[in-house]
Amino acid sequence: VLSLTVISVNRYYSVHNPLNARSFFTQKRILSTILVVWLLSSGICMPLIFMNKRDEIGVVEGLPLVFSICREIWPQERLKQAYNFLLFCALYCLPVLFNMVICFLTVRRLWSRSRQLKESSALTRSLPASRLKIRRKVAQMVVALVLLFAISWLPVYLMDIWIDFNIPKSLQDVTPSPWILQLRPFAQWLGLTNSSLNPICYCFVGNLYRSAKE
Protein backbone atom coordinates (compact mmCIF):
# COMPACT_ATOMS: atom_id res chain seq x y z
CA VAL A 1 0.00 0.00 0.00
CA LEU A 2 2.75 2.45 0.91
CA SER A 3 4.65 1.45 -2.23
CA LEU A 4 1.62 2.29 -4.37
CA THR A 5 1.41 5.68 -2.68
CA VAL A 6 5.04 6.38 -3.55
CA ILE A 7 4.42 5.28 -7.13
CA SER A 8 1.50 7.72 -7.33
CA VAL A 9 3.78 10.56 -6.25
CA ASN A 10 6.29 9.51 -8.90
CA ARG A 11 3.60 9.49 -11.60
CA TYR A 12 2.31 12.89 -10.60
CA TYR A 13 5.79 14.43 -10.57
CA SER A 14 6.53 12.88 -13.97
CA VAL A 15 3.43 14.55 -15.41
CA HIS A 16 3.79 17.85 -13.56
CA ASN A 17 7.51 18.28 -14.21
CA PRO A 18 8.59 15.73 -16.84
CA LEU A 19 11.86 17.47 -17.71
CA ASN A 20 13.25 17.16 -14.16
CA ALA A 21 11.69 13.81 -13.25
CA ARG A 22 14.71 11.72 -14.20
CA SER A 23 17.18 13.96 -12.38
CA PHE A 24 14.97 14.18 -9.28
CA PHE A 25 14.32 10.45 -8.87
CA THR A 26 17.93 9.36 -8.63
CA GLN A 27 18.98 5.85 -7.67
CA LYS A 28 19.99 7.03 -4.20
CA ARG A 29 16.61 8.66 -3.57
CA ILE A 30 14.75 5.64 -4.87
CA LEU A 31 16.68 3.27 -2.59
CA SER A 32 16.17 5.61 0.37
CA THR A 33 12.44 5.74 -0.32
CA ILE A 34 12.24 1.95 -0.51
CA LEU A 35 14.08 1.70 2.80
CA VAL A 36 11.68 4.16 4.45
CA VAL A 37 8.66 2.24 3.13
CA TRP A 38 10.02 -1.04 4.50
CA LEU A 39 10.83 0.50 7.88
CA LEU A 40 7.37 2.05 8.19
CA SER A 41 5.67 -1.19 7.16
CA SER A 42 7.77 -3.22 9.60
CA GLY A 43 7.08 -0.77 12.41
CA ILE A 44 3.33 -0.81 11.83
CA CYS A 45 3.17 -4.62 11.78
CA MET A 46 5.68 -5.17 14.60
CA PRO A 47 3.02 -5.77 17.32
CA LEU A 48 1.71 -8.81 15.42
CA ILE A 49 5.02 -10.60 16.00
CA PHE A 50 4.34 -10.62 19.73
CA MET A 51 0.55 -10.99 19.67
CA ASN A 52 0.30 -13.95 17.27
CA LYS A 53 0.26 -17.28 19.09
CA ARG A 54 0.16 -20.83 17.80
CA ASP A 55 -3.15 -22.61 18.29
CA GLU A 56 -4.77 -25.84 17.12
CA ILE A 57 -8.29 -26.34 15.79
CA GLY A 58 -10.14 -29.55 15.12
CA VAL A 59 -11.37 -30.18 11.59
CA VAL A 60 -14.04 -32.77 12.39
CA GLU A 61 -15.54 -33.13 15.83
CA GLY A 62 -14.63 -36.47 17.40
CA LEU A 63 -11.61 -37.11 15.16
CA PRO A 64 -7.98 -36.47 16.18
CA LEU A 65 -7.38 -34.39 13.04
CA VAL A 66 -6.22 -30.88 13.91
CA PHE A 67 -4.62 -27.96 12.11
CA SER A 68 -2.10 -25.53 13.55
CA ILE A 69 -3.04 -21.88 13.06
CA CYS A 70 -1.80 -18.47 14.17
CA ARG A 71 -4.24 -16.50 16.29
CA GLU A 72 -3.98 -13.01 17.74
CA ILE A 73 -4.05 -13.16 21.53
CA TRP A 74 -4.13 -9.67 23.05
CA PRO A 75 -3.91 -8.96 26.79
CA GLN A 76 -6.79 -6.47 26.53
CA GLU A 77 -9.70 -6.23 24.14
CA ARG A 78 -9.29 -2.48 23.71
CA LEU A 79 -5.68 -2.89 22.56
CA LYS A 80 -6.75 -5.20 19.76
CA GLN A 81 -9.52 -2.84 18.70
CA ALA A 82 -7.24 0.19 18.79
CA TYR A 83 -4.47 -1.53 16.83
CA ASN A 84 -6.73 -2.84 14.06
CA PHE A 85 -8.47 0.51 13.77
CA LEU A 86 -5.01 2.08 13.46
CA LEU A 87 -4.21 -0.36 10.65
CA PHE A 88 -7.44 0.61 8.90
CA CYS A 89 -6.54 4.30 9.08
CA ALA A 90 -2.83 3.97 8.29
CA LEU A 91 -3.02 1.33 5.55
CA TYR A 92 -6.36 2.14 3.95
CA CYS A 93 -8.01 5.49 4.77
CA LEU A 94 -4.94 7.71 4.56
CA PRO A 95 -3.43 6.04 1.44
CA VAL A 96 -6.79 6.10 -0.36
CA LEU A 97 -7.36 9.75 0.53
CA PHE A 98 -3.82 10.68 -0.49
CA ASN A 99 -4.06 8.75 -3.76
CA MET A 100 -7.38 10.41 -4.57
CA VAL A 101 -5.80 13.84 -4.10
CA ILE A 102 -2.83 12.85 -6.27
CA CYS A 103 -5.25 11.36 -8.79
CA PHE A 104 -7.24 14.60 -8.95
CA LEU A 105 -4.10 16.69 -9.42
CA THR A 106 -2.76 14.31 -12.08
CA VAL A 107 -6.03 14.25 -14.00
CA ARG A 108 -6.33 18.03 -13.83
CA ARG A 109 -2.78 18.43 -15.11
CA LEU A 110 -3.28 15.99 -17.97
CA TRP A 111 -6.57 17.53 -19.06
CA SER A 112 -5.18 21.07 -18.88
CA ARG A 113 -2.30 20.01 -21.08
CA SER A 114 -4.75 18.35 -23.45
CA ARG A 115 -6.66 21.61 -23.80
CA GLN A 116 -3.43 23.50 -24.45
CA LEU A 117 -2.37 21.00 -27.07
CA LYS A 118 -5.78 21.13 -28.67
CA GLU A 119 -5.64 24.92 -28.90
CA SER A 120 -2.15 24.86 -30.37
CA SER A 121 -3.12 22.20 -32.88
CA ALA A 122 -5.99 24.37 -34.03
CA LEU A 123 -3.44 27.06 -34.89
CA THR A 124 -0.59 25.03 -36.27
CA ARG A 125 -2.47 21.94 -37.51
CA SER A 126 0.66 19.91 -36.74
CA LEU A 127 -0.17 18.00 -33.56
CA PRO A 128 -1.52 14.47 -34.14
CA ALA A 129 -4.91 13.86 -32.57
CA SER A 130 -3.77 10.51 -31.20
CA ARG A 131 -1.71 12.25 -28.50
CA LEU A 132 -4.82 13.85 -27.03
CA LYS A 133 -6.53 10.47 -26.87
CA ILE A 134 -3.53 8.96 -25.05
CA ARG A 135 -3.68 11.68 -22.40
CA ARG A 136 -7.37 11.05 -21.83
CA LYS A 137 -6.70 7.32 -21.49
CA VAL A 138 -4.03 8.03 -18.88
CA ALA A 139 -6.44 10.17 -16.87
CA GLN A 140 -9.13 7.50 -17.01
CA MET A 141 -6.76 4.70 -15.98
CA VAL A 142 -5.39 6.68 -13.03
CA VAL A 143 -8.92 7.08 -11.69
CA ALA A 144 -9.68 3.40 -12.35
CA LEU A 145 -6.58 2.21 -10.44
CA VAL A 146 -7.43 4.26 -7.36
CA LEU A 147 -11.03 3.06 -7.37
CA LEU A 148 -9.92 -0.55 -7.92
CA PHE A 149 -7.64 -0.39 -4.90
CA ALA A 150 -10.30 1.21 -2.70
CA ILE A 151 -13.01 -1.28 -3.67
CA SER A 152 -10.76 -4.35 -3.46
CA TRP A 153 -9.44 -3.73 0.05
CA LEU A 154 -12.51 -2.19 1.70
CA PRO A 155 -14.40 -5.50 2.38
CA VAL A 156 -11.57 -7.16 4.33
CA TYR A 157 -10.98 -4.09 6.50
CA LEU A 158 -14.69 -3.69 7.23
CA MET A 159 -14.99 -7.36 8.19
CA ASP A 160 -11.98 -7.16 10.48
CA ILE A 161 -13.38 -4.07 12.20
CA TRP A 162 -16.77 -5.76 12.60
CA ILE A 163 -15.11 -8.80 14.19
CA ASP A 164 -12.91 -6.69 16.46
CA PHE A 165 -15.73 -4.58 17.83
CA ASN A 166 -18.04 -7.55 18.35
CA ILE A 167 -15.63 -10.00 19.93
CA PRO A 168 -16.84 -11.79 23.09
CA LYS A 169 -15.95 -10.58 26.54
CA SER A 170 -13.62 -13.51 26.92
CA LEU A 171 -10.80 -13.32 24.39
CA GLN A 172 -10.34 -17.07 24.65
CA ASP A 173 -13.88 -17.64 23.35
CA VAL A 174 -13.45 -16.37 19.82
CA THR A 175 -16.45 -17.60 17.85
CA PRO A 176 -17.09 -15.43 14.77
CA SER A 177 -20.40 -15.72 12.98
CA PRO A 178 -20.56 -18.41 10.26
CA TRP A 179 -21.07 -15.87 7.48
CA ILE A 180 -17.88 -14.08 8.53
CA LEU A 181 -15.95 -17.34 8.30
CA GLN A 182 -17.32 -17.89 4.81
CA LEU A 183 -16.87 -14.37 3.43
CA ARG A 184 -13.61 -13.40 5.14
CA PRO A 185 -11.38 -15.61 2.89
CA PHE A 186 -13.08 -14.20 -0.21
CA ALA A 187 -12.51 -10.65 1.00
CA GLN A 188 -8.85 -11.45 1.65
CA TRP A 189 -8.56 -13.01 -1.80
CA LEU A 190 -10.09 -9.89 -3.37
CA GLY A 191 -7.48 -7.65 -1.78
CA LEU A 192 -4.57 -9.92 -2.66
CA THR A 193 -5.81 -10.20 -6.24
CA ASN A 194 -5.61 -6.43 -6.48
CA SER A 195 -2.01 -6.56 -5.24
CA SER A 196 -1.09 -9.20 -7.82
CA LEU A 197 -2.64 -7.21 -10.67
CA ASN A 198 -1.07 -3.88 -9.68
CA PRO A 199 2.34 -4.53 -11.33
CA ILE A 200 0.63 -5.34 -14.64
CA CYS A 201 -1.68 -2.33 -14.44
CA TYR A 202 1.09 0.09 -13.49
CA CYS A 203 3.34 -1.28 -16.22
CA PHE A 204 0.64 -0.56 -18.78
CA VAL A 205 -0.04 2.88 -17.32
CA GLY A 206 3.69 3.58 -17.37
CA ASN A 207 3.78 3.06 -21.12
CA LEU A 208 0.85 5.44 -21.52
CA TYR A 209 2.59 8.01 -19.31
CA ARG A 210 5.69 7.92 -21.48
CA SER A 211 3.57 8.37 -24.59
CA ALA A 212 1.64 11.22 -23.00
CA LYS A 213 4.81 13.10 -22.08
CA GLU A 214 6.24 13.00 -25.60
From TrEMBL:
Keywords, ordered alphabetically: G-protein coupled receptor, Membrane, Receptor, Transducer, Transmembrane, Transmembrane helix
Pfam families: 7tm_1
SUPFAM superfamilies in alphabetical order: Family A G protein-coupled receptor-like
Predominant place of localization: membrane
One cellular-component annotation, GO: plasma membrane
G-protein coupled receptors family 1 profile domain sequence ranges: 1-202
GO molecular function, one term: G protein-coupled receptor activity
Location relative to the cell: Membrane
Record-annotated membrane-spanning stretches: 30-50, 85-107, 138-158, 186-209
Residues in coiled coil: none
Membrane topology listed for this record: Multi-pass membrane protein
Stored PANTHER family: G-PROTEIN COUPLED RECEPTORS FAMILY 1 PROFILE DOMAIN-CONTAINING PROTEIN (PTHR45695:SF36), LEUCOKININ RECEPTOR-RELATED (PTHR45695)
UniProt name for this protein: G-protein coupled receptors family 1 profile domain-containing protein
Source organism of this protein record: Pyrrhula erythaca
